[in-house]
Amino acid sequence: MIDRLQELGKEALEEIKQADTVKALDAVRVKYLGKKGPITEVLRGMGKLSAEERPKVGQKANEVREEIQQQLEQKTEELEKIALEEKLQEESIDVTLPGKEVKRGARHPLTAVVEEMEDIFIGLGFSVTEGPEVETDYYNFEALNLPPDHPARDMQDSFYVTPDMLLRTQTSPVQARTMEKFKGKGPVKIVCPGKVYRRDDDDATHSHQFMQMEGLYVDENVRMSDLKGTLEAFVKEYFGPDRTIRLRPSFFPFTEPSVEVDVSCGICGGDGCRICKHSGWIEVLGAGMVHPNVLTYNGFDPEKYSGFAFGMGVERFAMLKYGIDDIRHFYTNDIRFLEQFKRV
């Protein structure tokens, strides 16, 4: 796969070199960096690789993507400059007059973070799956081992459209729907990004609408050590190779055993500071082994299959990585804030 990725990189750079218009460059970008491009196709086959080969292939894929992106940006600037010079020569205008600056948009920071997370998990053999934001009571609760009297069903926590329909409170229903489609035959290895909704008072750290990235891996002989290894690889790739994780016992209705996952503080290096409340650790996500009831509800034999699941808030990971102190910045569309992420 590494040879194939190198081959694709060379082909892309050659096509960029030969492109003579911005439109042609955009076609190259879509061809090689799009979700249906050959690089993504190669990564989708990583599930067949050994655990030792996957990180190497994932790292090579990221290097090839970055090289292609850099060359695209450089060639775009060159073509735009040439086009401007040709236009100035053709038109009779006073080029000494001051012009108006054209404001150019960029990816929203949350979009950038989701795409980065997706790339990391694709490199670990996961595929990206999405589902509806207006969900049924069954997939949002019952299929996830949340009985009718569970507190999460309270109207104070959820936005109901009808007695049986609501705005999803988590992206876990996508996991249930996907397991159901596999009809009891593994492996299932997916991540599910998307918006979720809960009744909450908006403040610096809470919002009634936010984004989640959840993951699920169901197969024969899946262990807690697989969960820890996956999350540790993700954290090191996202935050940096010097960061570590720890697992603490917790409770979630859809996993057993369940854990809270902490990452070592990047400010103090684990010594303790104001950011980590002098503990050296920052809580980032919840995880655990898929509850046998959830496997049964969704067609899998818990005697044969096991699995792990995890869920993280995208805004929290963005805030930790970029030092953002208020979740509301992501949704107020303040240009001064958004302009800081033009190159993210």
TrEMBL record:
<dbReference type="InterPro" id="IPR006195">
    <property type="entry name" value="aa-tRNA-synth_II"/>
</dbReference>
<dbReference type="GO" id="GO:0000287">
    <property type="term" value="F:magnesium ion binding"/>
</dbReference>
<feature type="domain" description="Aminoacyl-transfer RNA synthetases class-II family profile">
    <location>
        <begin position="111"/>
        <end position="320"/>
    </location>
</feature>
<dbReference type="GO" id="GO:0000049">
    <property type="term" value="F:tRNA binding"/>
</dbReference>
<keyword id="KW-0175">Coiled coil</keyword>
<keyword id="KW-0963">Cytoplasm</keyword>
<dbReference type="GO" id="GO:0004826">
    <property type="term" value="F:phenylalanine-tRNA ligase activity"/>
</dbReference>
<feature type="binding site">
    <location>
        <position position="256"/>
    </location>
    <ligand>
        <name>Mg(2+)</name>
    </ligand>
</feature>
<dbReference type="GO" id="GO:0005737">
    <property type="term" value="C:cytoplasm"/>
</dbReference>
<dbReference type="InterPro" id="IPR004529">
    <property type="entry name" value="Phe-tRNA-synth_IIc_asu"/>
</dbReference>
<dbReference type="InterPro" id="IPR045864">
    <property type="entry name" value="aa-tRNA-synth_II/BPL/LPL"/>
</dbReference>
<keyword id="KW-0067">ATP-binding</keyword>
<comment type="subunit">
    <text>Tetramer of two alpha and two beta subunits.</text>
</comment>
<protein>
    <recommendedName>
        <fullName>Phenylalanine--tRNA ligase alpha subunit</fullName>
        <ecNumber>6.1.1.20</ecNumber>
    </recommendedName>
</protein>
<dbReference type="GO" id="GO:0140096">
    <property type="term" value="F:catalytic activity, acting on a protein"/>
</dbReference>
<keyword id="KW-0648">Protein biosynthesis</keyword>
<keyword id="KW-0547">Nucleotide-binding</keyword>
<keyword id="KW-0460">Magnesium</keyword>
<dbReference type="InterPro" id="IPR004188">
    <property type="entry name" value="Phe-tRNA_ligase_II_N"/>
</dbReference>
<dbReference type="GO" id="GO:0016740">
    <property type="term" value="F:transferase activity"/>
</dbReference>
<dbReference type="GO" id="GO:0006432">
    <property type="term" value="P:phenylalanyl-tRNA aminoacylation"/>
</dbReference>
<dbReference type="InterPro" id="IPR002319">
    <property type="entry name" value="Phenylalanyl-tRNA_Synthase"/>
</dbReference>
<feature type="coiled-coil region">
    <location>
        <begin position="58"/>
        <end position="92"/>
    </location>
</feature>
<dbReference type="InterPro" id="IPR010978">
    <property type="entry name" value="tRNA-bd_arm"/>
</dbReference>
<keyword id="KW-0436">Ligase</keyword>
<dbReference type="Pfam" id="PF02912">
    <property type="entry name" value="Phe_tRNA-synt_N"/>
</dbReference>
<dbReference type="GO" id="GO:0005524">
    <property type="term" value="F:ATP binding"/>
</dbReference>
<comment type="similarity">
    <text>Belongs to the class-II aminoacyl-tRNA synthetase family. Phe-tRNA synthetase alpha subunit type 1 subfamily.</text>
</comment>
<keyword id="KW-0030">Aminoacyl-tRNA synthetase</keyword>
<dbReference type="Pfam" id="PF01409">
    <property type="entry name" value="tRNA-synt_2d"/>
</dbReference>
<dbReference type="InterPro" id="IPR022911">
    <property type="entry name" value="Phe_tRNA_ligase_alpha1_bac"/>
</dbReference>
<keyword id="KW-0479">Metal-binding</keyword>
